[in-house]
């Protein structure tokens, strides 16, 4: 199986690596690394959500509901 499914760089230069999901695993998870390669944490995004942009405190993307209707969402990122 692949090690990852997607890679995105946010506006702060952090690397978001999407975990490859096994069949039946519908929960998207991203491991986030800073520009020096230090792991910052793991972020779970909603199912059927495609990331368009990641800022310092938000994630912007497209979600698809149970009727296959697309919606644009902005989610707030909370950092510890």
Helix and strand topology:
Blueprint: E1 4-9, E2 15-19, E3 29-33, E4 39-44, E5 49-54, E6 58-64, E7 70-76
Antiparallel strand pairs: 1-2, 2-3, 3-4, 5-6, 6-7
Description:
A hairpin with a 5-residue loop joins strand 6 and strand 7 (70-76). The protein has 80 residues and is mostly beta strands. It has one domain (4-76). It has strands spanning 4-9, 15-19, 29-33, 39-44, 49-54, 58-64, 70-76.
List the keywords.
3-stranded antiparallel β-sheet, single chain, 4-stranded antiparallel β-sheet, 80 residues, 0% helix, globular, mainly beta
Helical residue percent? Answer: under 10%
Q: Write down how many β-strands occur, each being a DSSP E stretch of 2 or more residues.
A: 7
Distance from first to last alpha carbon:
32 Å
As an assembly, this protein is single chain
> What is the average of the pLDDT values?
94
Count structural domains. 1
* Shape field: globular
Structure described in brief:
The chain is an all-beta fold. It contains no helices and seven strands.
């Amino acid at each position: 199986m692949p090690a990852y499914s997607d890679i995105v760089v946010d506006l702060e230069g952090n690397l978001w690596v999407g975990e490859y999901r096994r069949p039946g695993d519908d929960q998207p998870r991203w491991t986030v690394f800073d520009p020096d390669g230090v792991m910052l944490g793991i972020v779970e995004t909603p199912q059927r959500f495609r990331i368009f942009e990641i800022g310092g405190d938000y994630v912007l993307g497209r979600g698809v509901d149970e009727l296959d209707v697309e919606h644009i969402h902005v989610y707030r990122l909370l950092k510890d």
